[in-house]
Amino acid sequence: QAQLVESGGGSVQFGGSLRLSCAANGISIDTRRMGWFRQGPGKEREGVASYGFSDRITYAPSAAGRFTISRDTAKNTLYLQMSSLKPEDTAMYYCAAGGGIGTPSLTPSHYDYWGQGTQVTVSS
């Protein structure tokens, strides 16, 4: 029954912005660790940002200062605001949910539920 559905991806120019959304059904995003991950061409899946216990947040160095993770518990939706986008940000972006309460984590194995992803392409 648990389902995560990402949206908001697309193609943008260098320096542009996008806001990704992750709509959750069957699970509550405010009761568990949540995260955004990405996988670029020829790369392993890597953590981008995570929201966890007591509203703690962690970012990958590549995302810090440019990306902002947030959530709207009323809508049961997680967001990733992306600005100052670079070609290196081109990847499939995935939303992930943990099995329960936890501190922020950028480790994929700490998550139990995954969306199908939304493509982000940044051109020069």
Radius of gyration: 13 Å
How many angstroms separate the termini?
Answer: 40 Å
The sequence of SSEs as H and E is EEEEEEEEEEE
Q: Per DSSP, what share of the residues sits in E-state strands of 2 or more residues?
A: over 45%
Instruction: Please summarize the sheet with the most strands.
Output: 7 strands, mixed
Q: Can you tell me the residue ranges where pLDDT is under 50 for at least 5 consecutive residues? A: none
* Estimated helix fraction: under 10%
Number of strands: 11
* Broad shape: globular
The helix count comes to: 0
Structural class: mainly beta
Average of per-residue pLDDT values: 96
Explain this structure to me?
The chain has 124 residues and is mainly β. The protein contains no helices and 11 strands. The protein has strands at residues 3-7, 10-13, 18-25, 34-39, 46-51, 57-59, 67-72, 77-82, 91-97, 113-114, 118-123. The strands form 2 sheets. Strands 2, 4, 5, 6, 9, 10 and 11 form a 7-stranded mixed sheet that branches. A hairpin with a 4-residue loop joins strand 7 and strand 8 (77-82). The mean pLDDT is 96.
